[in-house]
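Q: My hope is that you can spare some time for a protein that puzzles me. Underneath my words sits a plain record pairing an amino acid chain with its backbone structure tokens. Those tokens are not coordinates but codes from a learned vocabulary of shapes. Thank you; the sequence and its tokens follow:
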Amino acid sequence: MTSEQTPTASDSTDPRPRRLTYAAALAGLEGIALAVGGLWMLVEGLAGDPDDRGSAVTGGITLAVLALLPLLAARGLLLRRGWSRGPAVITQIMALPVAYTLLQADSIAIPAGIALAVVAVAALVLLVNPETNRALGIRGPGGAQGDQK
């Protein structure tokens, strides 16, 4: 092994913590929801009668591409890759303003906003948990890992 290669957290024989599995499931759920929403917007933009076909198609493609971030993060979390926590946390932080905007609506979007806020906060709590950090091989400040109990 060269000095540039470092063992990943998945090389350990420890079982994956449930918190990590739950965080991956929530990130995957968000990714699937984005992909479905993007494909729905794309189909509606192409086959339906939108006010602005270009905007509908562009929005659908954008959502479908954005779905890749949480889906890749979920896969990385399941495989216990340390890099995957960053994209997963970014996804949750981006979801909070969206949830807030949905909560400000006077429509059926309010339950969607509540659900999104609950998922984002729960995923953030799971992702910053010390057990998750240890499972992903993320070291604390100063390079110390797992010294505190």
